[in-house]
Amino acid sequence: MIEQLFVWLGNTAPGRYLAGSTAAFAATEALHIVALSLVGGVILVVDLAVLGVVLKRLRAEAVLQRTLGVFCVGLGLVVVSGVLLVAAGPYKYYTNPLFPLKLGFLLLALIAHFLLQRKLKARQDTGAGARVLAVASLTLWTAVVVAGRWLGLI
Fold it and tell me: Does the pTM exceed 0.90?
């Protein structure tokens, strides 16, 4: 079932186009990296604000609210460009043991971030629970980036 999804993705027009165009693939990969940088920047600022390392004069909830738009745009671009990259080489990702690991880290990182968002919106940004989530978020997003980088090398 999953293999058929990868095969289908590779047979779509964008998948075939990206597989045949080095320039288009490179541009998509660059977009993916820039978008991930946007997401990572927001995560870093919000998590460090929760931990009291940066923007100490602002409530972490205010930092979250001010960066939420950038996070959402970045995450949308990461997802779209990521799907396009997989479409360009579906078997590379289907057969790579790091790909499900990266997706697992991504899922956990998103869960940690959304749980932290929920706490911040409830104005519980000073508790130990928020700090634990911030550290977990930083760790998991780092794992996503490292797994993604290794994925590109295998």
Answer: no
* Helical packing angle, 98-121 and 60-88, nearest 10°: 160
Annotated domain spans of the chain: 2-153
Q: Are the CB atoms for 151 and 102 separated by under 8 Å?
A: yes
CA distance 10 to 30: 20
Three-state SS string over 60-120 comes to HHHHHHHHHHHHHHHHHHHHHHHHHHHHHCHHHHHCCCHHHHHHHHHHHHHHHHHHHHHHH
Sequence-distant (6+) residues with CB within 8 A of 127 are: 119
pLDDT tens track for 53-80: 888 888 888 888 899 999 999 999 999 9
What pLDDT band is residue 126 in, cutting at 50, 70 and 90?
low
